[in-house]
Amino acid sequence: MTPSTMLAKTLSPRARLWLKRAGVLFFYLALWAVLARAVDQPLLLPSPTAVLTRLVSLLPTPQSALSLLYTLGRTLWAYLLGIGAAILLCAASCRFSLADALISPLLSAVRATPVTSFIVLALVWLSSARVPVLTGFLMTLPVVYSALTGAVRGIDPKLHEMAKLYGFGALGTLRHVIVPAVLPAFVQSCLASIGLCWKAVVAAEVIGVPKMAVGSRLYESKIYLETDSLLAWTLTIVLLSVALEALLRRLARRVLEVRHE
């Protein structure tokens, strides 16, 4: 038995998972460094060291901190608006057939339309600071709405009959029948839409270029051919997206655990 095999067996599953992720990260950083050295053109592909150095110098500045805060705020606002609207529209669609006939085609069109089309069109009507919120909202709404309506319509009719038999009433049926049935699908749709919302907000910022935004910093880096800054901001976007999803996943797991207690 090799020392590496013995070490792997002594580690916990969680430690082995983190070790594996660290190995994958090291592999791609090494590959990036090799490619940067082979190209030998920092304007085209700066080294990982140059990008990380630029990242460390960028983030502590007031402009960068405000850009991050504004983009996170827009994303959170768009995300919560999308979830809230999805819940209301789902309730209307499941209660009234006319509402479903009106809402479903509209949201299908939203899902099929490219994000850039919404952004360019919205810039005609709204300020550049509001377009990212609208774009993130439109990316979140259809995902959560589809999951909720599918889950509600998939509830066994016998459960509704049982609720009537025991005299639950509207609120009791909502609490004891509908919420437990739709909660897993709702949680999964929220997890799936946070990344879409974040990327849509940043994309709208790149096109609209509001004063304080991560997307604006990306655009400026591209205009001034600062490839190290461009990759540093891109890395920041990726890391924040992963952090948001991890935070939301932890919160969702906690909600489901409390629900089952």
Mean pLDDT: 85
Strand content: under 5%
Order of helices and strands: HHHHHHHHHHH
Q: How would you classify the helix and strand content by structural class?
A: mainly alpha
Describe this entry's structure for a reader.
- The protein is an all-alpha fold and 261 residues long.
- It has a domain at 87-260: Orthogonal Bundle (MetI-like fold).
- Helices cover 85% and strands 0% of the residues.
- The protein is built from 11 helices and no strands.
- The chain has helices at 3-10, 13-39, 48-58, 62-95, 97-112, 115-125, 131-153, 157-165, 169-208, 214-223, 227-260.
- The chain is globular, with a radius of gyration of 23 Å.
- The two termini are 44 Å apart.
- The model has no long low-confidence stretch (mean pLDDT 85).
Quick take:
The protein is an all-alpha fold and 261 residues long. Helix 4 runs antiparallel to helix 5 and helix 4 runs parallel beside helix 7. The mean pLDDT is 85.
Protein traits:
261 residues, mainly alpha, MetI-like fold
Which secondary structure elements does this structure contain, and how are they paired or packed?
Layout: H1 3-10, H2 13-39, H3 48-58, H4 62-95, H5 97-112, H6 115-125, H7 131-153, H8 157-165, H9 169-208, H10 214-223, H11 227-260
